[in-house]
Design goal:
The protein is α+β, with helices and mostly antiparallel strands. The protein has a single domain, classed as Alpha-Beta Plaits. It contains 2 helices and 4 strands; from the N terminus they run E-H-E-E-H-E. The longest helix is centred in the first third of the chain and has 12 residues, at 19-30. The protein is globular.
Length: 88
């Protein structure tokens, strides 16, 4: 079975949310189900920032959804968008 590279944009619940705390929580929550390729902050505009996350997971039905659910459950996360999915 193959693997897929998935890119997520994670928006904080509000502009005062600590993105470093979100990044640390992502590393903790996802370490057992996928490989984190890249995690960084990006400017979205007007002083707002998001966390961009790239992971590699097995190409299995429901895996992306389970990752999205784990990300959404992290304290301080307002929205999770899957931006790109590609085979590796």
């Amino acid at each position: 079975m193959g693997e897929v590279l998935v890119t997520f944009k994670i928006l904080p619940a509000d502009e005062n949310t600590d993105l470093d705390m979100i990044s640390d929580s992502i590393k903790t929550e996802l370490s057992d189900i996928c490989k984190i390729v890249d995690i960084k902050e990006s400017e979205i505009g007007y002083g707002l920032k998001a966390v961009n996350l790239k992971i590699i997971i097995p190409d299995e039905e429901g895996k992306i959804g389970s990752v999205e659910e784990k990300l959404q459950a992290i304290n301080g996360v307002g929205q999770v968008d899957t931006e790109e999915v590609t085979l590796t």
